[in-house]
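Please check what follows.
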Amino acid sequence: MVETLESIISFIVVFGALVFFHELGHLLLAKRAGILCREFAIGFGPKVFSFKKNETVYTIRLLPLGGFVRMAGEDPETIELKRGQVVGLLLDESGQVEKIVLNHKDDYPNIRVVEVEEADLEHGMYVTGYTDGERFERFTVKEPAFFVVDRQEIQIAPYHRQFAAKTLGQRTMTILAGPLANFLLSLVVFIIIGLLQGYPVDKPVIGELTPEGAARAAGLKQGDEVIAINGERMETWTEIVNTIRAHPGEPLQFQIERNGKKRSVTVTPEAKTVQGETIGLIGVYQPMEKSVLGSIKQGLVETYYWTREIVTGLGQLITGQFQLDMLSGPVGIAVSTGKVAESGIYYLMKWGAILSINLGIVNLLPLPALDGGRLLFFAIEAVRGKPVDRQKEGMVHFIGFALLMLLMLVVTWNDIQKFFL
């Protein structure tokens, strides 16, 4: 029970962090472009916690399956003033409209009740109508202004604050920023691991020793420089590993240097069968170093390596070399995260960085409802010189989202069968 709880907590923390930084990328670029961001959400479903800062409501929702940034103009504005509709207008000192109250008008003693004749809240920013049943007036709507519905304020989004009003470049960078944030997060995490734990180097030096390995029993110590094995000079850690692996159960004569003094140590590698091959092991880890520049270099190498591996895996999936039942969904990731967490914080950090790269790559796939699908429509717009009809694009994304949810259900069922049945 305790282990299950730890697995769930580890999954929520890791996956929540990945989603947070992904959506933060969208949010920062959207705000930079001047887009009104109504909500920044982690999770889906009912709200568990929320607060508002400036124009944006920040929420945590019940189901930890993703997140979103709700930008004005991405969906049709839900409130529209129609001719003949009776609303209340709250005016500022200059006579401009601050709030348009749709119900519970009695809450506001100084309200101006208007029967709407015409309203343009995107371009002209005005409302015209009749007050006192007969006097025709025109009211200018200020920025920002709000609808008040059931005592809740909803900010009005003029067209220039909407997603669709921005240039193709601004919209592209806003969508692309999410996956890029995941790659950046991975790079930073790998760099932090290098700074705190160190990074492996290919030098002929003994690293950390296991408690019961042959190396410790023979008298080798961490930091010993290996000059030669059986008279063959060692230049790198890779050469040491290959020599040890090739001589299972055979005594090896190590010529080492320790504290400026040379000495000879005999070590007999333990024979162990791995994937049908018998190899030699002496219980020594690769040497580690710590430096800022080295950590940055290692972070770049790790990020590139795992990006290449994940892209290769996706290619195998597309070509049929990788079976669908080998995929993992939230349940499988949660189980794996719990197991990794048992190995220590650095392993969990590395696992999170790998998942972040995976999230970034998957979101770049040109599939409907994913960031890559939206970028594909932007590419079509760039070629055509005009955007695709919003209703048609919306329908494609809706169908794509439904298919992704179906895939998620299939993968989740596979995970449940794999781990619990």
